[in-house]
Amino acid sequence: MLAVELLSEPVVVQDTYASGLSHVEDIGDGNYRFTFYTRLRSTYGGDENNIVARLVLPASAVHAALKTTMRELGMKCCGGEKVSVRH
To answer: Residue 66: enclosing H or E segment and its boundaries?
Structure first.
């Protein structure tokens, strides 16, 4: 994992579990909104997907997240480690 110098947590930030990514929206100015959900058993039967988090990231952070995730998972495919960001 990459360490960020002088990373601080002045208040505790809770972990949020998500079982999936619903969609990614281009919201302009090089920013993207990621909507995450958790699948739960509905009280009415069946499953339902409840939104648990929305993150807005600049394209540069999305690119860094892809590279870091691939490295952490030990993945080297499709040239993804060499992906560049278009603006």
So the answer is: helix 59-72
**Do residues 55 and 33 touch, judged by C-beta distance below 8 A?**
yes
pLDDT at 42: 84
Percent of the chain that is helix, strand, coil (3-state, to 5): 20, 35, 45
Q: What is the pLDDT of residues 27-63, one digit of tens each?
A: 999 999 999 999 998 888 889 999 999 999 999 999 9
CA dist 80 and 82 (Å) reads 5
The structural domains of the chain, with segments of one domain joined by +, span: 20-82
State the Cα–Cα distance between residues 85 and 71, nearest whole angstrom: 18
**Helix count and strand count (H, E) for the chain:** 1, 3
Q: What was the pLDDT predicted at 87? A: 55
CA count, 13 A, side-chain hemisphere, 87: 8
